[in-house]
Write a structure and sequence with these properties.
The complex is a heterodimer of chains A (284) and B (357). Chain A is built from seven helices and ten strands. Chain A is an alpha+beta fold and 284 residues long. In chain A, helix 4 packs antiparallel against helix 5. By secondary structure, chain B is mainly alpha-helical. Helices cover 75% and strands 0% of the residues of chain B. Chain B starts with 5 loop residues before the first helix and ends in a 9-residue tail after the last helix. The chains are: A alpha+beta (284), B mainly alpha (357).
Chain lengths: 284, 357
Amino acid sequence: MTVTWSRGHTLTAGLAVIVLTNVIALGGVAWNRSGEPESRLTMTQRELQQSNHYRFDRDGGGMGLRLRWRVLAADPLAVPSAYYRGAPEWMDTAKLASLGFDVSAPPAARRAGRRYERQLPKGTLLVLELNGPAYRKALERAREWAEKEAAKAAQSGKTGRGSPARRAAEFLKKEEEKNSRLFVVDAGPSVEALRAKYPDRTRYAIVRGKVRAYYQNRRQESGWTGYVTVENTHVNLPLEFQKVIASSLRAGQVAGAANGGPALEVTVAYGKRFEPWITAVQLP
Amino acid sequence: MSEPSRSSAQERADEIRVFAEELTRLEKEGVLALAPVQREAIATHHRGLLAQFAQDYDIDRDSRAKQLSLGMRMASFLGALALAASVFFLFRQFWGRFPTEIQVVVLIGAALGAFGATMWIQSRDASGYFTKLAAMVAFACFVINIALLGQIFNITPSDKALIPWAALAFLLAYTCDLRLLLAAGILCIIAWISARTGSFSGMYWLHFGERPENFFPAAVVLFLVPHIIPHGRYTDFGPIYRIFALLTISLPMLVLANWGRISYLDLDEDLVEGIYQVLGFVLSAGAIWLGARRHWSEVVNTGASFFVIFLYTKFFDWWWEVMPKYLFFLVLGLTAVLLLVIMRRLRAKGLFGGALR
C-alpha cells in the first residue's frame, strides 16, 4: 500500500512535534517543582548577582540572578580569593576514583601525564554549602593572612595603599561582609549518599555539575586533583520579583557593604531534577 | 511522492532549452532535418511541459530569468536570516516584561503560528522564495521556543533538544524542498549523534567536540541515508548528505592528524597523528575514486579538496622551516600541476568509469 504524503500530513506532523516537545519540556518542569523541594537555600546579595544573559545584547529584556559559588582552595598558603574556582581542598585521588576517573597509575613521563590530564569532564552531583564550615574556614584563612601581613608590615613599615598588609585587611573585611558564603563542598554520583552526609536541606543543596580531573606534575608534589563547575548557575527571575530586585539589588549591595547585613533575601529552591527556581524575595 | 520537485522541474526545463538550441544548430549544419510535423510535435510537447512547470513551480524559462532567480535566492536567504534574527531579538527585548504564563503562551504560539503560516504560504507560493523565508522563521521560532523555555525554567541543558529541532527542520526541508533547512537538520543530527557517542564514553555531553572521533558515527549515518532512503524527486538532497558526511569525517581527521593528543587512541601522540594522516589520504583518495565511479561530482570535489589540504599540511610540517619561501610555494604549485596531470590521465584511461559530470 502506498501512502501519499499530503500537506495535511505535514501540518499534523509539524504541530505534533512542536506541541509534544513543549509538553515534554513543561512536564519536566512540573515534575521538578512537584512536592517538597529537594533543598531550599535563602541567600543574600552576597551569593547572588544580577546578570543579563548576553553581555553584547544591550536590548536584553530578561533578568536573572547568577549564583556566586566558590571553593575552598586545596593550598592553604595560597592567597585567598573571593572568586576561587580552582582545585578544592576535598578533591583527592579517592574522590576522583569514586566519580569514575581513571587514577590507576600516576604517569611517569610528562608526555604520558598530558594524556592522563586530558580525561574529559564527567557530569556529577555537587553539594553547595551556604554559610557553613567551609565559609568559616575561608574566613579563618583570611584572618590568618591579614595577621601575618600585619606582622610583616609592623617590621617593614609598609602599610600604605596597595601594600600586602592593606590588601589582606581589605580582603578580610570583604570576606566578613560582602564575599559569597556559597561553597561547593563535595561531589558524588548518588543523591542518597550525599543527602545522608548532608541532611540539612536549608544549608546544603544538591545540584548538577561536572568535574574535570587534572594531574599536577610538580617537582615537589605531584598528584591528582580536579576542578568543579556548577551547572544552572543562572536563575531566571520571574516578573513578580523583578521590580523588587531591580530597585534594591544595586542599592542593597551598597547598603550591605555599609552595615554588613543582608539587603535582600532570595529563597532558591531545588527540585527533583536539581533545577533551581526562585520561590521568594524579601527585603529584611 | 511521484510528482517532481521544483529543482528537478528546473533541471528538465534547462535540458529542454539546451536540446532546442542544439537541434537548431544541427539543422543549420545540415546534420539533421526533422519533418515539420515532428518539429511541431516536439515543440508543442515542450511548450506544454514548460507551461505546466511554470504554473506549478515558477521555474526560470531562460538564462536571464535564471540569473534573476539567483539574485532572488540570495535575497531570500539573507532575508530569512535577517527575519530569524529579528524574531530572536524581538523576544530578547520584550519577553522579560511579561509574566511567566504569558511568556510560555507567546513562545508556543509563535512556534505554532509560524509553522502554520509556512504551510499556508507554501500552498500559495509556487516560486518557493517566500516559503523559504517563512520556513526559516518557523524553524527559528521553534528553536527559540525551546531554548527560552530552558532559560525561563532553568532547565539543565540537554542534547535531547536537538532531536525535535532536527525533526522540524527535516519536515520543513522535505515539505518545502529547502536545502538550507536540510543542512540545519543535518547539523542538529551531527551534534546529537556526536554528543551521544561522547556520552557513551562517560564524558559530559557538552564536551563531545573535544574528541573528534565522536563525529565519525554521524558521518557514516549521513553517508548511508541517501542510499537507504530513496530520495526520488529530491535530487539535490543526496549530494548535501554526502558533502556533510565527508566534512564530518574529514575535518575531525584533519584535526587529529595535527593534534594526536586529543584522540581516544591510547597511543603515542606522533603515532596517532601518523595514523590519521594516512587515513586522511586514503579517505580523500577513496572519495575521489568513489565519486568518479558513481558520478557524484560533489564527492569528487570534496575528496580532492581534502586530499590537497592533507598534502599541503604535510608539506608545511616538512618544509616550511627548512625551505626558502619561494621554493616552498613553488613546490606547492608544481604539486597542484602534478595532481592535475595525474587526474587527467586517469580520466583519459577511463579509470573513473567515464567522464565527470
